[in-house]
Amino acid sequence: MIPGAVFAETLRQFLAPIGPYLEDPTISDILINGAAQIFIERGGTLELTGAQFESAEELMAALRNVAQFVGKAVDETRPVLEARLPDGARIEAVFPPAAPDGPHVAIRKFPPTALTVERLVQVGAMTPLAAATLKALVAAKLNIIIGGGTGTGKTSMLGALSSFIPQHERVVVIEDSKEVQLQRLHVIYFEARPPDAKGRGQVTIRELFRTTLRMRPDRIVIGEIRGGEALDIIQAMTSGHGGCLSTLHATQPRDTLSRLETMSMMSNVDMPLAAIRAQIASAVNIVVQVGRLKDGTRKITHISEVLGLDSGGSGYRIQDLFLREYGGVGSDGHLASRLVPTGIAPAAEAQLREHGIELPGELFDRNAARPT
């Protein structure tokens, strides 16, 4: 087996054209559109660079080495690569023939140290009051889904919220590709694995999740819900495994729940939609919605509570505990906004009291977090 340090040095040589961008902490994304066009994202803005690979073959060679590093293979029958670099950066690549003028690559970098709640408050992603409220909701073992579009900071938010989990609890993390950075002492990580060239050795998220239930977890964290494992997760949430945390691609809290429905139906379990919907309404307590604003900043836009189904059983009852309100664009080009409480008392307040937790009193004052 090739030592990790040797692999890392080899990859640095293969990825030399983008080496400076990989090392630049101000850059969050590197986007390679074929060998001759490379964009970077810095501060929420895309910039075209002058860097390029000499040829598509050179870029392909680099990506094959990335695939080897994570034990995967790419060829004409498997033209998509999902992997990570030695420093933890996430890489997604699409090869010909699926990308005729490719390969096309997206690299998402993560900060060398996990993003903290304190830092999120400093940059205005949340307020101290929202942070105190989320701390209470996490500590009381409510099930929380973080929804958001691509590049909105869902994974970073997940890592930050994990700091609110009491230190004595055992946490199991399940991911397709390891990228979650939990601020925990007692945590174990599981990673799914695709089949090899002969169709052997596959380990799915669903299999890992079922194994996790027998690993004595106090908390289960799923890096991202993507498919049929949604139903297993929802059923676990309704059967005593409280305090689950996960992320999901969706643009609004209600969309987050609808997406859970869709993915639950991908499980190949013959269950009526009404039954799936009822389980989701019972399982998910809180939706934390994150978004990337027009100025490129990433912030919480909603903290919403799921109250169950409506009287007809066909729609979800949701109430917003926090909403982001927007103003104009300042002289610095940033959009003025503020995450404010709606003044609504959470229905889960009784569950918090069972854990000896009190919500901050300012939560019930709609004017508490408004700028003066």
Descriptive terms for the model:
Beta-Lactamase, 2 domains, globular, 9-stranded mixed β-sheet, 6-stranded antiparallel β-sheet, alpha/beta, single chain, Rossmann fold
Can you describe this structure?
There is one protein chain. The protein has 372 residues and is of the alpha/beta class. It has two domains: 4-108, Beta-Lactamase; 117-364, P-loop containing nucleotide triphosphate hydrolases (Rossmann fold, 3-Layer(aba) Sandwich). It has helices at residues 4-14, 19-23, 56-69, 117-122, 128-139, 154-161, 205-212, 229-237, 253-264, 273-283, 349-354, and strands spanning 27-33, 38-42, 45-48, 80-84, 90-94, 104-108, 144-148, 171-175, 187-191, 219-222, 245-249, 286-292, 298-309, 316-329, 335-341. The chain starts with a helix and ends in an 18-residue tail after the last helix.
Question: Can you count the helices?
Answer: 11
Structural class: alpha/beta
Q: Bin the helical content.
A: 25-40%
Strand arrangement within the widest β-sheet reads 9-8-10-11-7-12-13-14-15
Topology, element by element:
Layout (H helix, E strand, L loop, with lengths): L3 H11 L4 H5 L3 E7 L4 E5 L2 E4 L7 H14 L10 E5 L5 E5 L9 E5 L8 H6 L5 H12 L4 E5 L5 H8 L9 E5 L11 E5 L13 H8 L6 E4 L6 H9 L7 E5 L3 H12 L8 H11 L2 E7 L5 E12 L6 E14 L5 E7 L7 H6 L18
Parallel strand pairs: 7-11, 7-12, 8-9, 8-10, 10-11
Antiparallel strand pairs: 1-2, 1-6, 2-3, 4-5, 5-6, 12-13, 13-14, 14-15
Helix pairs in contact: 1-3, 8-9, 8-10, 9-10
